[in-house]
Amino acid sequence: MMKCSYIDELINCDVDSLSNEESEKIKEHIKTCRDCRNFLGALMISKNYIAKEPKIDKYFYTKVINAVDSDRYKKSKVSFRVLGLLERLKPALKASFGTLAVFVSVILLITSGVFDNLGNLIDKNKNKISYSDEHTNLTFLQTKGQNIVTEDGEIFNIRGITLTNNFWGNWVNGESEKLQSEGKEPIIRPLVQDEWVLTEDDFERIKNMGCNTVLYDFNYQLFAEDNPNREANLERLKQHIRRFSSMDIYTAIMLMAPPGLDSANDIREKYKHGSVRLKSVFEDDTYYEQWVNMWKYLAKELKDFKGVAGYGIINQPRTPTDSEGGVEVFRERLNNVCKEIRKIDKKHIIFVPEYNSREANPGESYFDDETQSYIIDNGEQGIIWERGLVKVDSSNVVYLFHFFEPYNFVNDGIGDFDASTLESQVKNRYEWAKNIGNAPLLTEYGISRINSVDKRLEWLETVHDIFNKYGISASYFQYKTSVGAYISMKTGFNAIYGEYTDWRNEISLIPFGFASEGIASSAKENLFSEAFEEYYRKNNTIETISILDNQPVLESLQKFWKQKP
């Protein structure tokens, strides 16, 4: 069903009689609303057909029908909302067109995406916005004391949401199984950003949310020197920055998956002996060089974008053992990356993260997840889960920490939280940043759906009050993630929206249900079958994206985002 409020205006829209103001209003809207773009496109074709009244060749019907792929609806990425709209339009369009063949042609046009540039058809202003250039009211952000400020000196607290952009990668049938059998990481980082992660509908949805910044996560592979899609990926990134800029939303460019060890592949790597564990940029010189070169490349390309809030140079890193340099090599390499960026770009903030863990030194005690006990390290470089910030010598720096505390409660729904303990943890970081030279802080935070809505709201309101008290910028993790039969709908699920990206491989339409017993069993185990029936199955059709039970969570975020610093 069409949900956009513009639909009533479009139904009565006469393109030829629009004023410049009306034309601009509709044109700007359809840039970010695919449903309205499709609807208006269908109406315009209908109008033109009626006006011209062409004679249809008697064989035209057969030719068009034969050209239609019988599996088109199963294969295409068209939303069921659009298909539902077309079904409702069908009688009227048939009456106007006089033949089903022309209607089928309209369907084919819509499903092939030819209306993506529909704004050009109703353009009455030659000075229209082009996303080849940045058009924005935003200014470069700078640090001043423990605040982030605009060029006018106005305090700017980041009130954002994180776009993970599937940085962790994909399971690729055949290839992933082979890698797994070899004891290697089976999840493959995409060389091109997945199409589903940021659509036209997402831009419109994010715009209406009310956040002032998006943390734009990405994996290193997108901008690796040997990636043949590197330039195309860069252009897509720039387009996205421009789109957000035009909506007065900053984009913070955040490297989530660097070369080598990262927070995603560490799920498997952390159980390996240190001698065979994948090395990080702080241990391996080749990975380190790739990391530095990538940031030099991006800094050169993005240095003049006002809509870029800054660069998050790495996510949740781990420091090596003392024998491999420990915290000092960690600090040195962070400093070097900052220096290389500053040689190119002195305008943008650099977001420097706290370390998330460290490798144990021989003789140190660490908690072993497999045995669920504390053991003494004997050279295996066990993982000690501790966090810490280190000062870098660069200017215009904001220090970033992650806040998912207490972890067992936030992620697993075990126990509860204590407000005073949470404040103490934030205050300690605030005091550290104050003592090293009045540096601002940014936190990324979130809470899993394993907790009830009421508990999530209670935790959110508590941490929001703390962030406000200490003037800390904050971004909620995360906006949207993929869902499916093999993904838990509870543990670790922090996203506001869930998108069913793989339904064509998991769902049988006739009869309606999961495609196999194995898929159905996994969906039940992960509580996805329950979520599917409640949030994604609508009259034996599939809604590909849902806010699930997160509307109150979103409203809590929106309240927080509206508060002035």
Any overview of this molecule?
A hairpin with a 4-residue loop joins β12 and β13. The protein is an alpha/beta fold. The strands form 8 sheets. An 8-stranded parallel β-barrel has the order 3-6-7-8-10-15-16-17. The chain is globular and about 65 Å long. The protein folds into 2 domains: 116 residues, no CATH class; 312 residues, TIM Barrel, CATH 3.20.20.80. The two termini are 39 Å apart. The longest helix is centred in the N-terminal third of the chain and has 19 residues.
Largest beta-sheet details: 8 strands, parallel, barrel
CATH names the topology of the largest domain as TIM Barrel
CATH structural class of the largest domain? Alpha Beta
* Continuous helix count: 20
Shape call: globular
**What is the overall pLDDT average?**
84
The fraction of residues in strands falls at 15-25%
What is the CA–CA distance across the termini?
39 Å
- What is the topology, as strand order, of the major beta sheet? 3-6-7-8-10-15-16-17
CATH architectural type of the largest domain: Alpha-Beta Barrel
Indicate the low-confidence ranges by residue numbers: 45-129
Global Rg: 26 Å
CATH superfamily of the largest domain: Glycosidases
In total, the number of domains comes to 2
Helix percentage range: 40-55%
Count of DSSP E strands? 24
Outline of the structure:
The protein has 565 residues and is of the alpha/beta class. 40% of the residues lie in helices and 16% in strands. It has 2 domains: 116 residues, no CATH class; 312 residues, TIM Barrel (Alpha-Beta Barrel).
